[in-house]
Design a protein that fits this description.
mainly alpha; 3 helices; 2 domains
C-alpha cells in the first residue's frame, strides 16, 4: 500500500505537465470571460443609447407613419419651394404650348 501512497505524495513530471496545461486552460477561459464581460457591457451601453433615442421619438398611433429627415426644417422648406417653382414653370410652359396649338 505504500507504493500507492507514493504516487500521490510526489508529483511526477506528467502530473506537473497536466497541471500546467490545466492552468493555461483556466487562464484562457478567464481571459475569454473577461472579454465577453467587456463586450456585454459595451452592448448594454449601446442598448441604453438606442432606448433613450427611441424614447425621444414622437409617439405614433396605429396607421400613422413618422418620417424623419436629416435636413433642417428650413432646408426642407427651401427644397420644397424649389420643386414647386419647377413644377409651376413646367405647367406654365405646358399651358403656353397648348394655347399656341389652338
Amino acid at each position: 500500500m505504500e507504493e500507492a501512497d507514493s504516487i500521490f505524495d510526489e508529483p511526477t513530471t506528467d502530473h506537473e505537465a497536466a497541471l500546467e496545461r490545466l492552468r493555461e486552460q483556466v487562464e484562457r477561459a478567464a481571459s475569454a470571460i473577461e472579454a465577453l464581460r467587456n463586450e456585454n457591457e459595451a452592448l448594454r451601453e449601446r442598448v441604453e443609447e438606442l432606448e433613450a433615442a427611441l424614447d425621444e421619438r414622437p409617439a405614433v398611433g396605429e396607421g400613422e407613419t413618422v418620417i424623419a429627415f436629416d435636413e433642417s426644417p428650413e432646408a426642407l422648406r427651401d427644397q420644397v419651394r424649389t420643386f414647386i417653382e419647377a413644377i409651376d414653370g413646367h405647367l406654365a410652359e405646358q399651358d403656353n404650348s397648348e394655347q399656341n396649338d389652338r
